[in-house]
Each structure stands twice: as C-alpha cells, then as structure tokens.
C-alpha cells in the first residue's frame, strides 16, 4: 500500500479532538467506527492536498476501501463512558460524554476538586471487575487511598495510568485525539531544510483488531463425524491400552494432566511474575493434552469422542476464553444460543467440538479474540500491581487489586446498574446526583455488593 504526504498542517482544517482516554484499555472515548470513517472521508475531500511519494496519481483510500473492518457494534463499544470515583454512590457515575477534554454529565463538566476520577468504558469496567473479582471502589482505593504507592505519581486528566502498559494502543494517542492513521517523517530531499510528513495507511491495519469488540465469540463447531470411530478390541488388549476399558481411570489421568487440582495459591504465585498472563501450569496442561492426541489413534478417539469436557475445562482454566460479563453473554447467545453451564457444573452439549473452539483462542487469528487477549493482559496488570527494582531489591508497589487466579464460574451474572443491559437510573436518581457532578463528595448511604 502506498504512503502519502500531507501538504501543510497535520489534520489541518479538522476539529481538535479530546485527549482523554479509557484508563483501562487506553482506547478512544468516541464511536471508533465513525471516527475512523470520518478520517477517510476527510482525506477524500482534500485529495488535492496529498502527494504520493512514488505515484503522483495516487488517490487516498476511501471509506469503502476495505481498510475499516469493524462494525457499528464495535464502534459503539468505545463511545459508552462512565467515571469511577468517590463523588458517586457505588463509585460509578451515570453515563457521560466527553467533549474536547471535558467529561460531561447532564451538560455539566465534572470537576475532581482534589478527588481524581477514572474515565472508563463500562464494558472495560465490567471486564476488569468480573475478570479479577473486584469492584469499582476497590479499583479507585487501590490507586488513590492513603498509603497507595500510586500517589507518588501526579495523576493527570488524560485518564491513562502511569504504571500500566497499554501495549499496541498507546501508539495511536495524539495531541488532537485518537490517531486512526500514524504520521511518518523524513528529511526533505535535495538539501532542503525541514521534514516532510506522511500518513501511512498500513498503520491502520492493527486497528482492525485493536478496535474490534472484545466480547464477540466464535461458534462452538459440531464435531467431525470422521473422528467418532470405535476403538478396536485388538487395541484394547495391548497392556498399556487396557486402561481405556476403565473410563474412570482415564478421567483421573486427564484431570491430573490438565492440573485441575492445582491450588489457588500456586496459581497466584505463577501470575505474579512480570509479563506472565497465563499460569505455567495451565500452559503445561494444555500442551500435554494436545500431545496425548498425537500418541495414537486410541488416545485421539478416547479424548475427542468421549471427553470434550476436557477442552471446555481448559478454556475455563485460561480465564478469558468464555463469557463472564452480561455483555459477553448477550453476544454469546447470538452465536451459540445455549449456555455451557447447567447451574451446577460446566456441561458439554453432545456433538460439540470444544477442541476446535479452544484452538481458535490459542491461535488468536480472529480480530475480536486478539483484542480480548489484550483486555485479559490489561486486567492482569491491575491484579498484579507493578514491580520496581530499587538498589538491587525488588519492591512490589501497593496498588494491586482483585484476585489474579480468580476464574469466573461460567454462569450468566445479574448485571450491575452501570453495565450494558443493567437497570437505567431513574430521573430522581439523576437529580440526586447533581451535587456530586459539580465535585461534591458524597458519603455512601448503603453498601453496594459486587458478586462475580
């Protein structure tokens, strides 16, 4: 794809955009689909102001060029906004909008007045709270309550947290808002002073997964009938293979292989190492099961045909591959119709191929799955806090929150009021909150319980 140059000011003639981001994912606080299309539409209108480096006849990409792969649901995910802070009961505001750096509720900009607040997509807040079993108040307290190491930082109004890595998202943060296309510069040729600036359409390609909604799940496919052949009596006479005559023994062996009985304390320790986002025991268990499939046809058939629950169990053990927020479950029903939990335990419907489902998440070729993995890594950072090395000694900063080794139980939860599909507050409640929107800090009238 060619690279083209803007003559004049970067995004000249466009309205400046807010430089406030979601504190959890670092994403834009606007409809990402509309923002992306607006940039491409703008380019087409000022086509005469572009010069392609290699091709003078180059025409900038249009909104219909195929670069934009996200849909309206994806775009709306980034537009929804709430704030977390002590100015509101239960530490979560009503729905907000942002405008040129201001966060606004009922047409009034929010003022922190010494009490910082965290702008966040409600979908992100829901993911974080339910992934590591925490609450909005605990998240805020971990950062800003007395004794938190995070207070060593000066919190600014960008929303971004100083000790978090936002991975691929932060390269699109710009002074005038979210940069849907990245600028490149190079010295001018022929001895001329200064630089030329280019916008590279190839830099848009990562947005196809970075802006994909993280709660879209693939269909659990049907099991291929070709793998459901019967075990031969001759094979079962082999000494080692005689264990397959006793399904209970095979189940015990496989449960041991996947590490089902590993204590939570061990998982917590495995998670605490920097840049570890899946416990080594879970990785080992997953690899061992797939290795057993390669031993011979008997192993393959016994596991694939009769023990699909092993792959569902592994997906659950990874912690992020199954739905656990109300919005996740709404999307799950669109594609899979039925739950995978019968109220007591994880349950596989006959004929389902959970091995294929698990492989989709392990390979991460799907845009929505790729972004869900990034969300999982962000949540683990909150749960881990940060590790600092001072004078050769490791010191763990005191702002971790939640439970690193927590696994949602697989049941569809009741939504909290601020989550998508939660109960909308009444007009009376909005009026009661008007004082806090102007910065007044309110005492909680009653405790709001968060359960995962």
Determine the mean pLDDT: 79
Number of domains: 2
Query: DSSP helix count?
Result: 16
SS strand fraction = 5-15%
Gap between N and C termini, in Å? 46 Å
Helix content: 25-40%
Largest sheet: number of strands, sense, barrel closure: 4 strands, antiparallel
Number of β-strand runs? 13
Given as residue ranges, the uncertain stretches (5+ residues, pLDDT < 50) are 1-18, 47-56, 230-236, 422-452
Gyration radius over CA = 26 Å
Spatial order of the strands forming the largest sheet: 2-1-11-10
Basic shape: globular
Structural category: alpha+beta
Order of helices and strands: EHEHEEEEEHHEEEEHHHHHHHHHHEEHH
Biased composition (Acidic residues): 425-452
Region (Disordered): 410-452
Please describe the structure with a list of short key phrases separated by commas or semicolons.
alpha+beta, 452 residues
Question: How would you concisely characterize the structure shown here?
Answer:
With 452 residues, this protein is an alpha+beta fold.
Explain what the structure shows.
The protein has helices at residues 32-45, 72-79, 122-132, 136-144, 207-210, 233-236, 247-257, 264-272, 280-292, 297-306, 309-318, 326-336, 354-363, 367-384, 427-432, 434-437, and strands at 4-6, 50-52, 82-84, 97-99, 102-105, 108-109, 118-120, 173-174, 177-178, 182-187, 195-200, 387-390, 393-396. It has 452 residues and is an alpha+beta fold. The strands form five sheets. It has a four-stranded antiparallel beta sheet with strand order 2-1-11-10, with no helix packed on it. α3 (122-132) crosses α14 and α11 runs parallel beside α13 (354-363). Mean pLDDT is 79; it is low at 1-18, 47-56, 230-236 and 422-452.
């Amino acid at each position: 794809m060619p690279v083209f140059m803007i003559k004049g000011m970067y995004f000249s003639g466009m309205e400046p955009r807010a430089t406030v981001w979601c504190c959890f994912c670092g994403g834009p606080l606007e409809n990402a689909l509309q923002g992306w299309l607006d940039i491409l539409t703008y380019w087409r209108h000022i086509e005469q102001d572009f010069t392609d480096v290699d091709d003078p006849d180059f025409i900038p990409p249009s909104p219909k060029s195929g670069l934009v792969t996200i849909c309206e649901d994806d775009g709306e995910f980034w537009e929804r906004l709430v704030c977390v802070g002590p100015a509101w009961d239960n530490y979560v505001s009503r729905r907000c909008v942002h405008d040129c750096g201001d966060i606004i509720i009922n047409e009034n900009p929010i003022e922190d007045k010494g009490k910082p607040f965290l702008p966040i997509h409600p979908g992100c807040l829901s993911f974080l709270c339910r992934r590591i079993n925490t609450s909005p108040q605990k998240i805020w307290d971990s950062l800003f309550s007395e004794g938190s190491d995070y207070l060593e930082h000066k919190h600014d109004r960008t929303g971004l947290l100083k000790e978090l890595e936002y991975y691929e998202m932060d390269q699109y943060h710009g002074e005038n808002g979210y940069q849907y296309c990245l600028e490149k510069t190079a010295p001018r040729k022929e001895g001329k002073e200064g630089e030329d600036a280019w916008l590279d359409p190839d830099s848009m390609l990562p947005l196809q997964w970075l802006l994909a909604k993280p709660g879209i799940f693939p269909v659990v496919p049907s099991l291929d009938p070709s793998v459901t052949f019967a075990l031969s009596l001759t094979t079962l006479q082999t000494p080692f293979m005689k264990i397959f005559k006793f399904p209970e023994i095979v189940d015990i062996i496989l449960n041991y292989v996947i590490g089902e009985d590993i204590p939570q304390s061990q998982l917590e320790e495995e998670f605490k190492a920097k840049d570890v986002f899946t416990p080594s025991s879970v990785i080992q268990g997953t690899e061992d099961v797939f290795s057993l499939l390669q031993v011979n046809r008997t192993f393959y058939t016994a596991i694939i045909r009769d023990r699909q629950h092993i792959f569902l169990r592994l997906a659950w053990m990874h912690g992020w591959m199954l739905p656990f927020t109300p919005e996740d479950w709404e999307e799950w029903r669109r594609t899979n119709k039925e739950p995978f939990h019968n109220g007591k335990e994880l349950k596989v419907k006959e004929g389902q191929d959970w091995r294929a489902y698990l492989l989709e998440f392990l390979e991460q070729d799907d845009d929505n799955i790729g972004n869900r993995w990034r969300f999982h890594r962000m949540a683990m950072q909150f749960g881990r806090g940060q590790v600092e090395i001072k004078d050769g000694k490791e010191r763990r900063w005191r702002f971790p929150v939640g439970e690193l080794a927590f696994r949602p139980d697989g049941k569809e939860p009741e939504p909290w009021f601020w989550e998508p599909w939660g109960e909308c507050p009444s007009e009376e409640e909005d009026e009661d909150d008007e004082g806090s929107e102007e910065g007044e800090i309110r005492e909680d009238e009653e405790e709001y319980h968060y359960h995962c």
